[in-house]
Design goal:
The chain has 263 residues and is of the alpha+beta class. The chain has helices at residues 20-33, 40-60, 76-83, 87-100, 129-132, 161-168, 196-203, 234-242, 247-254; strands spanning 3-4, 104-108, 111-112, 117-118, 154-160, 173-178, 184-189, 192-195, 210-214, 218-224, 232-233, 259-262. It has 9 helices and 12 strands.
């Protein structure tokens, strides 16, 4: 297996045996996970992350079906409905970026990494252990510039006090702890502690980076970011690509210490 660091030149693609089924799957994931109008280098970074995630799942369970891998895969038929008359142009753009990175995955200690990604951060990615308990050295908090330009950067969720009481048994909600990256680690509600990610899921918040306000009739959550905040920020990748960074630099920034390899 040829090896290169993320900052080195990519190996000659003619030396790589391409698994067309895998690459076609990655095309469907990139189409489902990232806006097609994003720059080429961001789409390439997404392709490598999606391929890495898939290979990790396949190695864990060789009999797994592609549709069960857990990424937002869309079929060619769905793409045609999404893009209409632009299908040919958009499909060519995504497939070209996928095949430009064909066979490339990220590894750490000779194993495919958990290539987590999210739409938008609060300006910093989150340490993996603060979301999934397990610490991974390549999923540590880094600054993510440009996320504030995302349409999903800020949001507001209003929960009536009646609904809030039905869920939590009261309305006395106070943030008790935040992580170093600014995400909520725990919330105290009427003396009972709740994990920030649990609050996000129960109330449908876009992020665990939130503030809580009581306006008299409602409990109001103001959020920053969209998703779990771990790994590559898609809008951060877009910003880096628009500022001249290639996909290797993007991956190197978000997945510290990971190595780019060819299958």
């Amino acid at each position: 297996m040829p090896v290169c660091s993320i900052s080195e030149e990519t190996d000659n693609k003619s030396d790589i045996v391409i698994d067309k089924n895998l690459e076609d799957y990655v095309i469907g994931v990139v189409a489902g996970e990232m806006p097609v109008n994003f720059p080429h280098e961001a789409l390439k970074a997404q392709a490598v992350a999606a391929r890495t995630y898939a290979v990790r799942q396949i190695q864990t369970n060789p009999n797994i079906n592609y549709e069960d891998i857990g990424q937002a895969f869309v079929t060619e038929e769905t793409m045609r409905k999404m893009w209409g008359n632009n299908f040919d142009e958009y499909y060519e753009k995504i497939s070209r970026n996928v095949y430009d990175t064909a066979g490339e995955i990220l590894e750490y200690n000779n194993e495919p990494i958990l290539a987590a990604f999210c739409s938008t951060t609060n300006g910093y990615t989150e340490n993996c252990e603060n979301v999934w308990t397990q610490a991974l050295p390549y999923l540590t908090s880094v600054k993510s510039e440009g996320d504030e330009k995302s349409p999903y950067y800020s949001d507001k969720v209003v929960v009536s006090k009646d609904r809030f009481t039905n869920i939590f048994g009261g309305t006395n909600a106070v943030i008790s702890e935040k992580t170093e990256a600014g995400y909520v680690k725990s919330v105290s509600i009427n003396g009972k502690s709740y994990n920030g990610d649990r609050i996000r899921k129960i109330l449908g918040l876009k992020s665990t980076c939130f503030e809580i306000n009581d306006d008299g009739n409602n409990i109001v959550f103001f959020t920053k970011g969209y998703g779990h905040g771990v790994g590559m920020s898609q809008y951060g990748a877009c910003y880096m690509a628009n500022n001249g960074k290639d996909y290797k630099s993007i991956l190197e920034h978000y997945y510290k210490g990971a190595i780019l390899k060819n299958l």
